[in-house]
Amino acid sequence: MAEVGRAAVRDPGALLPGGFWAAVAVWLERPQVANKRLCGVRLEARRSVAEPRAEDCGQRPNAGREQEERAAAAPGLRPPDGALGPRPSSGPDLGTAGRGPEGARRRRGEERGDGGPGQPREPAVGDAGFPASDLESAWDACSRSQAGGGPEVLAFLAGPPVGPQPGAPRQLDLVLRSVIPKTGPRCPLAVPRREMVVRDVLNGTVTFLPLEEDDRGNLKVETSNVYQIRLSQSREEWFISILIFCPERWHSDGIVYPRPSWLGEELLARLARWSVDSKKSEFKSTLSLISIIKYSKTYQMLKEKYKDMVKVWPEVTDPEKFVYEDVALAAYLLVLWEEEREERGLTAKQSFVDLGCGNGLLVHILSTEGHPGRGIDVRRRKIWDMYGPQTCLEEDAITPNDKTLFPDVDWLIGNHSDELTPWIPVIAARSSYGCRFFVLPCCFFDFIGKYSRRQSRKTQYREYLDFITEVGLACGFHVEEDCLRIPSTKRVCLIGKSRTYSPAREVSMDKQRTRYINSRRGHLASPPGETPASLPPRAAVGHEGHPNGHQVLDVGAAEGGAEAPADELWLSGFQPREKVERLRNCATLPRDFIDQVVLQVAHLLLDREEQISIGDASSSSSKAWNRGGSLSLTEVASELDPETLQRLKRECGGLQTLLRNNHQVFEVLNGRVHIRDWREEQLQRQQHPEAKRRLFSEAFKTRICWFFSHHPDGCVLPSDSCPFAHGPAELRPPRTPKKKKQIL
User: Fold this and answer.
1) Which of 662, 42, 11 has the alpha carbon at shortest distance from 296?
2) What's the CA angle centered on 238, arms 234 and 244, to 5 degrees?
3) First to last CA, the chain
4) E strands present in 2-116
5) How far apart are CA 141 and CA 137, in angstroms?
6) Of 456, 471, 351, which Cα lies nearest the Cα of 411?
7) Please, are residues 9 and 240 in contact by the beta-carbon 8 Å criterion?
8) CA 110, 111, 114: angle at the middle one, nearest 5?
9) Which residues lie closer than 8 Å to 297 by C-beta, 6 or more apart?
10) Residue 442: which residues within 8 A CB-CB, separation 6 or more?
11) Residue limits of the C3H1-type domain (predicted)?
12) Distance CA 337, CA 413 (A)
């Protein structure tokens, strides 16, 4: 046995020992957070058993309720409510799901923790199925084999005794998990590795026992890679240690089993940090609704198949981000739909419509993989012409009304669909009883206009997700939430796969939807799960005889305006995005206006004179150069006239964006504005890699130096060192970038 790492943990907030068990839960359920070479884990079964003893391992241990309560009440090492403790916090023993379609559906639901929003995610039977009773049998077999051939493992498992030991064996918590490596070109055939995790709450230890299967299908412990995470306390100080049972035989494969130094340094540091981190995630674990193994294989397949899109990307957006994000989205949907077909006993692949499809790559991938569908967006993109005729993309504006329904479509997709996001559950509900939806909210929109916050206790993102969930519930969907693995800060999706009502109640449910939509006009939306609020007094519901039974709010009539046609809008006031995208990043402002603001701000900074020397301070030829002082953005804004400020406020980012656009002159850091010192920039550029220095050289002398023309002391750099032209005679024509060859 060897200790490969030991870390003292400062606990000013009295979060230990509960924080330790929360940290262990992360490593147990989401090891990919620390080990990037893992895709995740599948928790297969869980069981509470009695501690094995060498003298009686030949018999099945059977601890009573007294021992269980003693272990749960152990002073100083009891896990918090909801954390990984001696027994599951709720629900039955895992791994008892039945067979057949209903049993498979229940097993998948248990594995993914479909207990509703806020419910703890419990490990359960994996895709292969492993009953919890079999886990107990495997534990008994392992205990007997270790007692006969290697009792040292049992001693390592027990750890150092804590206080007076009771006569009866204490309770241990067993979890069987399969660790899933990432698939890739280097390891395309990587298979999951099973581990038995043994948690001893009384002693504060978590032991990881790798399992191997013999020719007869029996599981046994692979003693070479056994390791343990231990929490201990000395006086008033806490320590977390990582120990390896047999360091001389440790085998590192670089994926599932890293080097001991990584365990003792990287993993230990993360566990220590997580143990005293009081912040709790507002979101579920990633990929909680689908099989991680299937997702990993599907994602790698799609990544290899569509990676060349990065090379031919004709849009101005970042190809690395958008290509791999859409590949990940497509992988998620393909697995979700495959499992839905298994649950429902379907053979035909689901159809779809992507509302607000943007670059259309998600539509292209899903269509190429055999799902009939199309994408609709208000603006055509250049990349659309590259996909070919098999990818159906339409340029059109979507306005929520009875003409924009999709009765023959299985799924509606809203991937960063902006103003359409809250309408997608409504359109899906009214298209047909069997229509489902998938939305990935990004920008915050209500049914009309921007979404207004109502709860300061939540983050704006969390509150908006709850609002879209509320919309789905009001429309009659069971709404599920999942977190995707995409390169985006907005990666929580909401899914409506089934209804809360029978088809016979469609008419009454549509009246409820109408009342809910109308209530948003008066900001009277109900909390999730409750009946939507009644109509505001000023809102009148009309058009009872609408052909499709959908009521429309006559907002114009109620407020003295013109009546909205019933067949056009479900709620008057909705505005689809403009066909031509307006640039609001200050780039389209008149050049003379920009130059005037730049000159005015520069003079404000130069008035706060701060002298620096040019050349050797001891030389008589040195002179002072005014680099100016610094002002906050608020101070700068207070010096500008109201008309200028109002014009800047109509642009995204306003004054700060304009100053950052003029980075030759200004530097904006932490809300303060400075005159840029190009002597410092010159030193930093020397440290850039060769490729970036080559880009700088291509832009050399292609623009006039602002300091040479406007600064009272001229440029701080000599002409041959300044990247900008000191006068028209030095100007060089800008180099035209090479066009990428568009070949798929």
Assistant:
1) 42
2) 95
3) 56
4) 2-9, 38-50
5) 6
6) 351
7) yes
8) 50
9) 183
10) 416, 418, 421, 488, 490
11) 699-729
12) 13
Q: What is the pLDDT of residue 162?
A: 55
CA triplet 473, 295, 384: central angle to 5 degrees? 80
Locate 573 and state its tokens: 């006031």
161 class by beta-carbon count within 10 Å (0-12 exposed, 13-18 middle, 19+ buried): exposed
- The two three-digit tokens of residue 112, written as one number: 């993914």
Type of residue found at 472: G
Query: How is residue 261 written in tokens?
Result: 């130094």
For the record, the structure tokens of 425 come out as: 């559950």
Question: Rounded to whole angstroms, how far apart are CA atoms 256 and 38?
Answer: 7
With beta carbons less than 8 A apart as the criterion, state whether 205 and 164 touch. no
Sign of CA dihedral 471, 477, 483, 485: negative
Mind listing the pLDDT tens digit for each residue in 46-80? 888 877 665 554 444 443 443 344 334 333 443 33
Cβ neighbours for 170, distance < 8 A, ≥ 6 positions apart: 50, 51, 63, 67, 70, 71, 200, 202
Tokens of 639: 């010096």
User: What is the C-alpha to C-alpha distance for residues 613 and 625, in angstroms, rounded to an integer?
Assistant: 6
CA separation for the pair 43, 446 (Å, rounded): 39
pLDDT confidence bin for 320, thresholds 50/70/90? confident
Give the model's pLDDT for residue 623: 65
CB 450 within 8 Å of CB 421? no
- Contacts (Cβ under 8 Å, ≥6 apart) of 161: 203
Task: Label residue 254 left, alpha or beta by phi (over 0 means left) and psi (-120 to 50 means alpha).
Answer: left
Secondary structure (DSSP) of 638-690: HHS-HHHHHHHHTSTTHHHHHHHHTTTTEEEETTEEEE--HHHHHHHHTTS-H
The structure tokens listed for 548 are 């499709």
CA–CA gap between residue 31 and residue 24 (Å, rounded): 10
What three-state secondary structure class fits 416?
coil
Assign residue 576 a region (left: φ > 0; alpha: ψ between -120 and 50; beta: otherwise). beta
255-264 — which CB contacts under 8 Å span 24+ positions? 255/37, 255/38, 255/181, 255/182, 255/187, 255/190, 256/38, 256/179, 256/181, 256/193, 257/210, 257/225, 258/35, 260/2, 260/4, 261/4, 263/4, 263/5, 263/227, 264/4, 264/5
Amino acid identity, residue 614?
Answer: I
Output the CA–CA distances (angstroms, integers) from residue 488 to 329, 400, 655, in the order listed: 12, 28, 27
Q: What is the pLDDT of residues 413-450, one digit of tens each?
A: 999 898 999 999 999 999 999 999 999 999 899 998 88
Bridge partners of 227, per DSSP, are 208, 244
H helical segments located in 315-459 = 319-344, 361-368, 424-431
According to DSSP, the β-strands at 205-213 and 672-675 are: unpaired
CA distance 361 to 337: 18
- Residue bearing tokens 């379609």: 101
- Cα(402)–Cα(431) distance, integer angstroms: 9
Distance CA 493, CA 491 (A): 6
User: How much is the pLDDT for 99?
Assistant: 34
Task: Round to whole Å and give the CA distance between 243 and 160.
Answer: 12
Q: Which structure tokens are listed for 244?
A: 């390896």
Are the C-beta atoms of residues 43 and 126 closer than 8 Å to each other? yes
* In contact, 475 and 600? CB cutoff 8 Å: no
pLDDT at 304 over 50: yes
Q: Judge contact between 39 and 180, C-beta under 8 A.
A: yes
**Which tokens go with 155?**
């001693």
User: What proportion of the chain, given as a percentage, has pLDDT over 70?
Assistant: 71
What is the tens place of the pLDDT at every residue in 586-603? 777 889 999 999 999 999
Q: Is residue 261 within 8 Å of 4, Cβ to Cβ?
A: yes
Residue type, 258: P
Which residues, 6 or more positions from 365, have their beta carbon under 8 angstroms from its beta carbon? 302, 306, 326, 327, 330
What ranges make up the beta strands (E) of 562-650?
611-614, 623-626, 630-632
Could you tell me the two tokens for 176? 């069987």
Q: Helices (DSSP H) in 371-421: which residue ranges?
A: none
**Token digits of residue 566:** 């019933």
487 C-beta neighbours (distance < 10 Å), count? 12
